Amino acid sequence: MTSDRAVILVSGGLDSATTLAIARSQGVDGYALSVDYGQRHRAELVAAARVARALGAIEHRVIRVDLSGIGGSALTDANIAVPESSQPGIPITYVPARNTIMLSLALGWAEVLDASQIFIGVNAVDYSGYPDCRPAFVNAFEQTANLATRSGVEGTTHFRIRAPLIDLTKAQIIQRGLELGVDFGITVSCYQADEEGRACRHCDACRLRYEGFAAAGIADPTRYFR
Asked: pLDDT tens digit string along 203-217?
């Protein structure tokens, strides 16, 4: 396996853009992977392509896995409204098994690419209650990756799941991204962005993003449709 090659999960949002920039700053050859999982906010996939180009990914692939067939989330089910206020517990915007599936796809591509690292922009500080954004999940998946692959079993590599934002606040993520030259104006974070990528201003993702820019003392470059 090649230690300077990595697969980076890129959603098109603020966190994954910063994660890709961090990977690049560490000298890895970054292969960007986005997942079209049936999300209602399709503009993030367009943003992901912009981010991958802007931050110098060697290649950008989009893999489709239709999680709308499972349902159970406001991000994939048109019959479930995206909440516009914070909810206690695990929110309805949680997509069942999403990060597990995304990391599994990234792991498969990493094995084909002879890459030993996978980067994911999960965050346990401003994570809105998602269970698959916790350090315990990241650590458990890394163990699984090394048990479930030919490369891991044959001992030719030790896969590493890199979560460089895991302990950062949103403001710290923004500051780190700006240091690395990320143009946050090309990113889309909103759970109900319109076709032009403009944000709603009211969902959890918008709130966390807005509060992050305010805390960082940085002008918010987000375009809003209301």
From this structure: 999 999 999 999 999
